[in-house]
Design brief:
about 75% helix
Amino acid sequence: MASQVSEAMTSIGIGVLIATAGLALLVNFCGVSNKIFDSFASFLPTGRASAKIFRLVGAGWTLIGILWIITAVTEL
């Protein structure tokens, strides 16, 4: 039982990290989306991409993190 709780808490922690990183990208906290875009644009052709792409990625990460947390909680 303790092992199962420990595994669930680890999964919840990972889900929180993923969701927090996604939320930071989504709301462009401290300009993180712009900084990441500028970093990638320095060595990749951008085409029609913009920093909004990383905000969309953040939305996906937030969703994945929330689903990860829900899955871990249901295993308890």
